[in-house]
Design brief:
Chain lengths: 210, 560
C-alpha cells in the first residue's frame, strides 16, 4: 500500500513537473478580438493560462484608473491581429504567473498604435525588465518602427527563470501581442516530485533492512 | 415667482417701456470667446453726439443733441446688459440754442440708461468747452463726483487736485470734470481738457490742459489693484486722423515731453487702450513716444453724430495703424472677464448712400453689425505683426500650457484711408477650463488674427455696413501643449483628441471645424509645413495638439 502511495506521488510529481514546464505558450489575445470600430476596455488585469498581465498605473501618475485595451479590427490602428495595450500614460505592465512560478520569456510582437506621419516613422524604444528569482534584474530594449506594422522581437537567454517582467507604455504608444512564454518548474511540483522520490527511497531501505 | 433685484427690475422695466415705443435691431451675437469665469461683465463706450441745430430734425434731435442716435445706443447698451456707459465728449453741438442751455437735453437722454440700472459717465468735448459747461457737467451728472442716485456700483471716485491759485483756492477746478472711478476690476480714468471751473487753462491755453494732469493720471493708475484693468478716456486723441489738434495740444508735436511721459506712464501701468472721440470715425492704432520706447493702443470712437470725417494726411511717424472704418455710426462693448478684456465694435449705416455726408434727418432704423473684436489679457502677451511679417513670434505659456504659432504671415493687403499698411496686434490670454469641460490644457484666447477691418472708400455704395465683418484670418498653424495625464493613449489616435475651439453657440468643436474653408485631415505626429488648411493632429512626443486654421478665438486641447 505504502509503495503504491509513493508511486502515485512520484507519478504525480512527474506529471506536475511535466505540465508546469511544458513547451512554450503563446499569449495571442485572440479571445479579446472584436470586429468593430471601438476601443475595448479590459480593466487593470488580463489572465491567460496562468499568466497575469497587470497594469500598475496609478491615477496620480497617469490621470486615469489603470486599463488595458484592445482595438477593434475596424479601428485604423488595428495591427492585423488583436493585441493588448496599456491604456495609461507611461503605464507599467507587469507579467507574472498566478502561482508564483518562474517562466522564460522568449519573444513578443510589438506594433505602434498608429502610423506616425514623420519621415522616419519615428521609432519607439521599449525597455523590458526581467526580474529573476535570485533578485537580479535583466533588461533588454527593442526599437519598434513607427509605421505600426507588427514586429516580433526575441529575448536573450537571460530572460529565463523570471519571477516577473515589466515594461512601460511610451509617449508614442504601442501594443503588444504573441507573448511567447515557457513556465519553469515551480516549488509545488518540485516538492511533489521530491516527496515521491524520498518515499520510494525510504521504502527501498525498509525492504533491504527486512 | 422669482424675485427681481432693484437693478434687474429697473433694467427689465426700462427695456419693456422702450420696446413699446421703439422698433430696435439688435446685432447677432457671436460668442466665440467664452465667458469662462462666469464673472464677466460689460460696459459700453460711445462718442460725439452733436447734432446741427439748424438742420430739420422733426424734434427728434433737439437742442443740437443727437437724441435719436442716443436713444438707439441706449437700447443697444441695455440689450448688451452693460453696467455703465461712457461718452467721450461732444455731448451737444452748441451749448446754447435759442437762449437755452442744451446740456440738460443730453442729460435727460441718459434717463433710459438710469431706468435700466445702467450708469452713465460723460466727458466734455470741445463743443461744451466753456467755464459755464465746466460748472454744469457735475451738476447735471453728479455721478462724476461719486454722488447721486446713478452710480450703480461705480465707486472710488477721485478728481485731480491741482495747485492753489488766486482763482481756485482749493485746487478743485477739475473736480467732476476729470475723474477716475472703479467698477469691479476696472479703473476708468477720464481726462477733461477744456476750460476749467475757474475759467482758467493750464499755461494759458486749453490746448495745454492735459499737461498738468499727467502726474495725477500716473498716480491714479499706479494706485489701483495689481490684477485690475485700466482704461483712459479723453475727447481728443493721441494722434488724430482728421483733426490734428490732439490731447496734448494744437498739433501732433505739441507738449511732446508731457505726451511722452503720459504714454510711458500708461504703458508702465498696464493700460492697453486710450479711447477718444473728436474724429467721428472708427480708427485703431498703436501710438508711441517720440523715441518709440513706449506705446499704447489708441481707439478713436465711431461717430454718433450728424457728421463724419475723412482722415487727413500728416502724422509724425509715431503711429502703427491697425483698423479703420469711416462713415458709420458705432459703439463699443467692453467685456471684462477676469484678466481678459474683449472689445466688440458694432456699427450701422448712417442711412444714406455710403460716404461722407452730413445727416439732415435722424438715421434710418437699421441694424448694428459686429464689425470687429479685439482684446487682451493681463496674463497674456501682445505681439505687433507688421504686414508681411511672420506670426511665429507669437508664443506664450501659462501654468504648464504652451501655445505657439508655427506658421503664417500677416498677408492682409488692406490699408487705411491714407494708404498706410495695417498691422495685426495679436494678443494672448489664458483661463483655466471648467472641470466639466474635461480639457487637457488651459484655455488660450487669441485676439487679433482676423483680417484688419478696413472700410473707407467713399465710392462704395449702399447702406454700409450691411453685414457683420468676416472673422476670417490668414492661414496659420497653432499648437498647444497638453497634459498627457489627461488623455488616454487610445484617445490620441482617434482624431477626436485635438485642438478645439468654441463655436457660435459656445460649444467646443474641433478647431478645424470653425475654418472658413479647407479639408479636415487628421495626422498623428508633428506639424509639417506642407500641411494645408484643415489639417490637424497630435504629436505625443512633444505632447502638443496642433491645427492649421484661419480664425482666432478660444482654443483648448480636448477630446471631442
Amino acid at each position: 500500500m505504502k509503495t503504491a502511495i509513493a508511486a502515485v506521488c512520484l507519478v504525480a510529481g512527474v506529471l506536475a513537473g511535466a505540465a508546469d514546464s511544458h513547451a512554450g505558450y503563446v499569449i495571442d489575445f485572440e479571445t479579446l478580438a472584436h470586429s468593430d470600430e471601438l476601443v475595448a476596455d479590459h480593466g487593470a488585469t488580463y489572465l491567460d493560462n496562468g499568466y497575469l498581465f497587470t497594469n500598475t498605473a496609478t491615477f496620480e501618475d497617469s490621470g486615469y484608473s489603470p486599463s488595458f485595451a484592445t482595438l477593434g479590427s475596424q479601428v485604423y490602428g488595428y495591427s492585423g491581429s488583436t493585441a493588448l495595450l496599456n491604456n495609461n500614460y507611461v503605464g507599467q505592465t507587469v507579467l507574472a504567473r498566478t502561482n508564483g512560478g518562474t517562466f522564460n520569456l522568449s519573444s513578443i510582437t510589438l506594433a505602434t498604435l498608429y502610423p506616425m506621419d514623420t519621415p522616419d516613422n519615428t521609432p519607439v524604444s521599449v525597455q523590458f525588465n526581467g526580474h529573476l528569482a535570485n533578485g537580479n534584474t535583466v533588461t533588454q530594449s527593442f526599437t519598434v518602427n513607427g509605421d505600426f506594422t507588427a514586429q516580433t522581437f526575441t529575448f536573450g537567454s537571460d530572460f529565463s527563470n523570471l519571477v516577473s517582467a515589466d515594461w512601460l507604455q511610451s509617449d508614442y504608444a504601442y501594443q503588444f501581442d504573441n507573448v511567447d512564454v515557457t513556465a519553469t518548474p515551480v516549488p509545488a511540483a518540485a516538492w511533489l516530485l521530491g516527496s515521491g522520490l524520498l518515499g520510494l527511497v525510504g521504502l527501498r531501505r525498509r525492504e533491504k533492512q527486512q | 415667482m422669482c424675485a427681481l433685484s432693484r437693478r434687474d427690475f429697473l433694467k427689465y422695466s426700462g427695456t419693456g417701456l422702450a420696446g413699446m415705443t421703439l422698433a430696435m435691431h439688435f446685432p447677432f451675437l457671436t460668442p466665440r470667446r467664452a465667458l469662462a469665469s462666469g464673472t464677466a461683465w460689460k460696459f459700453g463706450v460711445m462718442a460725439d453726439t452733436q447734432w446741427k441745430s439748424s438742420y430739420p430734425n422733426n424734434g427728434e434731435n433737439p437742442m443740437s443733441c443727437a437724441v435719436s442716435i442716443i436713444n438707439a445706443l441706449n437700447q443697444q447698451f441695455i440689450h448688451h446688459d452693460v453696467k455703465f456707459a461712457i461718452q467721450v465728449g461732444d455731448l451737444v453741438d452748441v451749448e446754447v440754442v435759442g437762449g437755452v442751455r442744451s446740456l440738460p437735453t443730453r442729460a435727460a437722454a441718459a434717463q433710459a440708461l438710469y431706468n435700466a440700472g445702467i450708469g452713465f459717465f460723460p466727458l466734455r468735448g470741445n463743443h461744451e468747452a466753456t467755464k459755464t459747461a465746466a460748472a454744469e457737467i457735475p451738476a447735471l451728472f453728479p455721478q462724476t463726483l461719486g454722488e447721486g442716485s446713478y452710480l450703480y456700483g461705480a465707486r472710488n471716485f477721485e478728481s485731480p487736485v491741482l495747485d492753489i491759485t488766486s482763482t481756485d483756492t482749493t485746487g478743485e477746478r477739475l473736480k467732476g470734470l476729470s475723474y477716475s472711478f472703479d467698477y469691479e476690476n476696472v479703473r476708468c480714468v477720464m481726462i477733461d481738457q477744456f476750460t476749467r471751473k475757474d475759467g482758467t487753462n493750464y499755461n494759458s491755453s486749453s490746448n495745454n490742459n492735459a499737461v498738468d494732469q499727467v502726474p495725477w493720471v500716473g498716480s491714479t493708475l499706479a494706485a489701483r489693484a495689481a490684477d485690475s484693468h485700466a482704461f483712459v478716456f479723453s475727447h481728443k486723441n493721441l494722434i488724430g486722423q482728421n483733426h490734428k489738434d490732439v490731447l496734448f495740444g494744437s498739433s501732433l508735436t505739441a507738449n511732446a515731453a508731457a505726451r511722452d511721459t503720459f504714454i510711458t506712464s500708461l504703458q508702465n501701468n498696464g493700460v492697453r487702450y486710450c479711447l477718444g472721440g473728436h474724429d467721428h470715425m472708427h480708427h485703431r492704432s498703436i501710438v508711441t513716444t517720440s523715441d518709440k520706447s513706449a506705446s499704447v493702443g489708441q481707439i478713436i470712437c465711431s461717430s454718433n453724430s450728424y457728421k463724419f470725417y475723412t482722415p487727413a494726411a500728416g502724422d509724425d511717424g509715431r503711429e502703427i495703424p491697425v483698423a479703420q472704418e469711416l462713415y458709420s455710426i458705432g459703439y463699443y462693448i467692453v467685456t471684462v472677464d477676469g484678466p481678459r478684456v474683449t472689445i466688440d465694435f458694432y456699427a450701422k449705416s448712417h442711412g444714406s448712400d455710403y460716404g461722407d455726408i452730413d445727416l439732415l434727418a435722424s438715421p434710418l432704423d437699421m441694424p448694428f453689425y459686429l464689425r470687429e473684436s479685439f482684446g487682451y489679457s493681463l496674463n497674456g502677451k501682445q505681439f505687433v505683426v507688421a504686414r508681411g511679417n511672420s506670426f511665429t513670434t507669437v508664443q506664450d505659456s501659462f501654468e504648464g500650457t504652451t501655445a505657439k504659432i508655427l506658421s503664417g504671415n500677416n498677408a492682409n493687403s488692406e490699408t487705411d484711408y491714407l494708404n498706410r499698411n495695417l498691422s495685426k496686434i495679436v494678443n494672448t490670454g489664458w483661463s483655466t477650463p471648467l472641470i466639466s469641460e474635461s480639457a487637457a490644457s488651459n484655455v488660450l484666447t487669441l485676439w487679433g488674427m482676423s483680417d484688419n477691418l478696413s472700410m473707407y472708400n467713399a465710392s462704395l455704395s449702399g447702406f454700409l455696413p450691411n453685414a457683420a465683418e468676416s472673422k476670417e484670418s490668414d492661414v496659420y498653424a497653432l499648437s498647444l501643449s497638453y497634459d498627457p495625464k489627461k488623455v488616454r493613449p487610445t484617445d490620441l489616435i482617434s482624431g477626436k483628441f485635438g485642438l478645439a475651439t468654441k463655436d457660435a453657440n459656445g460649444s467646443w468643436v474641433k478647431a478645424v471645424d470653425a475654418n472658413f474653408s479647407g479639408t479636415k485631415t487628421f495626422k498623428y505626429g508633428p506639424w509639417k509645413s506642407s500641411y494645408g488648411l484643415g489639417t490637424y493632429g497630435v504629436d505625443p512626443s512633444t505632447k502638443t495638439v496642433w491645427a492649421v486654421v484661419n480664425h482666432d478665438g478660444d482654443f483648448v486641447a480636448k477630446y471631442l
